[in-house]
Amino acid sequence: MPVLKVLDAHPVVAFLEDEPGADQVRGLLLRAEEGKVRLAMTVVNLGEVWYAIARADSPESADRLVQEIRGMAIEIVDVDWALSREAALLKARGGVSYADCFAAALARTRKGEVVTGDPEFRRLEDAVRIAWL
Fold first, then answer.
1. Which pLDDT band holds residue 2 (cuts at 50, 70, 90)?
2. Residue 77: is its pLDDT beyond 80?
3. How many angstroms separate the CA atoms of 113 and 132, rounded?
4. Which of 64, 3, 50 is CA-nearest to residue 28?
5. Residue 92 DSSP symbol
6. Beta carbons of 102 and 43 less than 8 angstroms apart
7. Torsional class of 2: left (φ above 0), alpha (ψ -120 to 50), beta (otherwise)
8. What's the CA gap between 114 and 10, in Å, rounded?
9. What secondary structure letter does DSSP report for 128?
10. What is the pLDDT of residue 51?
11. Ranges of each domain in the chain
12. Model-level pTM?
């Protein structure tokens, strides 16, 4: 089975805005389309992407781009109590946003790795595998 890569909001925004790391994310998306890697993202992190776009542009642009993301080879994972609790355990350690903890929790529970360029994740390097952009 292909390895699971959990996307934080950071790499998705980098891809959409053609920021540093965009080419790496583009490569992951192509590999996911080919079935060589599995990509997943929580709805919480997708919400982060939405508000980043809405703040920078407009809610309408955010809606349109989120629809495009939902059409990509990325599993969008709803949040249940088990995932919320795992995120809360990570948040209790301090220094990491609760939304980021959802990406880390998904990676931990599904034995994957987080793809990010967000330096906050350095605080979680002992708890979850991280693929840095």
1. confident
2. yes
3. 10
4. 3
5. H
6. no
7. beta
8. 11
9. S
10. 96
11. 4-132
12. 0.94
Q: Which two tokens stand for residue 5?
A: 């890569």
Say how far apart CA 122 and CA 124 lie, in whole Å. 5
Q: Using an 8 Å Cβ cutoff, are 22 and 14 in contact?
A: yes
Please determine, for residue 70, whether its predicted confidence score (pLDDT) is greater than 90.
Answer: yes
Contact call for residues 6 and 40 (beta carbons, < 8 A): yes
Euclidean distance between CA atoms 49 and 39, whole angstroms: 16
100: Cβ contacts below 8 Å, ≥ 6 apart: 8, 45, 116, 118, 120, 121, 124
Is 4-132 assigned to CATH 3.10.180.10?
Answer: no
Q: What is the spatial distance between Cα 81 and Cα 95, in angstroms, rounded to a whole number?
A: 22
The amino acid at 133: L
Backbone angles phi, psi at 130, to 5 degrees: -130, 135
> What is the model's pLDDT at position 49?
97
Q: What is the mean pLDDT of residues 90-94?
A: 94
- The three-state secondary structure class of 77 is strand
